[in-house]
Automatic annotation (TrEMBL):
<feature type="signal peptide">
    <location>
        <begin position="1"/>
        <end position="24"/>
    </location>
</feature>
<dbReference type="InterPro" id="IPR018313">
    <property type="entry name" value="SBP_3_CS"/>
</dbReference>
<feature type="domain" description="Solute-binding protein family 3/N-terminal">
    <location>
        <begin position="34"/>
        <end position="270"/>
    </location>
</feature>
<dbReference type="GO" id="GO:0030313">
    <property type="term" value="C:cell envelope"/>
</dbReference>
<dbReference type="InterPro" id="IPR001638">
    <property type="entry name" value="Solute-binding_3/MltF_N"/>
</dbReference>
<protein>
    <submittedName>
        <fullName>Amino acid ABC transporter substrate-binding protein</fullName>
    </submittedName>
</protein>
<comment type="similarity">
    <text>Belongs to the bacterial solute-binding protein 3 family.</text>
</comment>
<keyword id="KW-0732">Signal</keyword>
């Protein structure tokens, strides 16, 4: 695509967006009686075959607003900008979306600056990477050097995989085993196919339920903030009234303890952003 054509398409899209009413005007939502919430598919413990944290949160938010829930699970796109475009402010070219609100959006200044058509707000969880090891097969841990000669599981196309494969100039590359999902890597840990797994803390906690045979370790990577990343919600920029209502609902869920109960129901320790 030429730069001129790209610029023309962008200008046309902007003009169309300006001509249309807000997708998620709160008054119109109350008339319809339904809150459409976008959630990532295949992201346990936040979404899976048996529900998840984001499913329960979506239901709780809808109830707080006096609306019925319409859940819109969707597959992750190539990057977050695609997901925000498809699920928040424009809609997917295949015909689904946008939703009224999208969950599990990183509350990140750079992402906000790149996406001026959305409002990102209401952080509700801080995710971090953790190493979980078999206490029997890795009895002591004093940093990544303790994994020399051990088998390490990671999810394909993930932050954990990227970090583990590149750490110390590829020192652990031959020891890394790549699995289709985080859940598959953790299942391999339990079956003995690997000795440790680098994964999201939420996934580890939900899968292992505090089993004493496994120990959770904090690990430091130069390319990864030790405090992890915060996730929240996103609505279309013009939907300020909806954002305010959702923020109030999230605050009430936190104050009442319901937010924490949603996480603990799925085996995950709530972490205040």
């Amino acid at each position: 695509m030429t730069m001129r054509r790209a610029a023309a398409m962008l200008a046309a899209a902007c003009a169309m967006a300006a001509a249309l009413p807000a997708w998620a005007d709160l008054g119109k939502l109350r008339e319809s009686g339904t809150l459409k919430v976008a959630v990532y598919k295949d992201m346990p413990p936040f979404y899976g075959n048996a529900g998840g944290i984001d499913v329960d949160l979506a239901q709780a938010l809808a109830e707080k607003l006096g609306l019925k829930l319409s859940l819109l699970p969707f597959p992750a796109g190539d990057d977050l900008n695609d997901d925000l475009r498809n699920m928040v402010w424009k809609g997917h070219y295949l015909g689904y979306g946008p939703a009224d609100v999208m969950l599990h959006v990183p509350v990140d200044r750079r992402l906000m600056a790149q996406n001026d058509k959305v409002e990102i707000f209401a952080p509700y969880y801080r995710e971090t990477l953790r190493l979980v090891r078999s206490v029997k097969r890795v009895p002591q841990f004093a940093g990544l050097d303790s994994l020399a000669g051990k088998r390490i599981g990671v999810e394909q196309v993930s932050i954990s995989g990227m970090l583990m494969l590149g750490e110390q100039n590829g020192r652990f590359r031959d020891a890394v085993k790549i699995y289709p999902t985080e859940a598959d890597a953790l299942a391999a840990l339990k079956s003995g196919d690997v000795d440790a797994v680098l994964a999201n803390r939420s996934g580890i906690e939900a899968a292992l339920h505090g089993d004493a045979d496994y120990a959770l370790e904090e690990v430091a990577f130069q390319r990864m903030p030790s405090r992890g990343w915060v996730v929240g919600m996103a609505v279309k920029k013009e939907s300020r009234d909806l954002a305010e209502a959702l923020q109030k609902a999230a605050d009430e869920l936190t104050a009442s303890g319901e937010m924490a109960r949603i996480f603990t129901r799925h085996g995950v320790q709530p972490v205040t952003p």
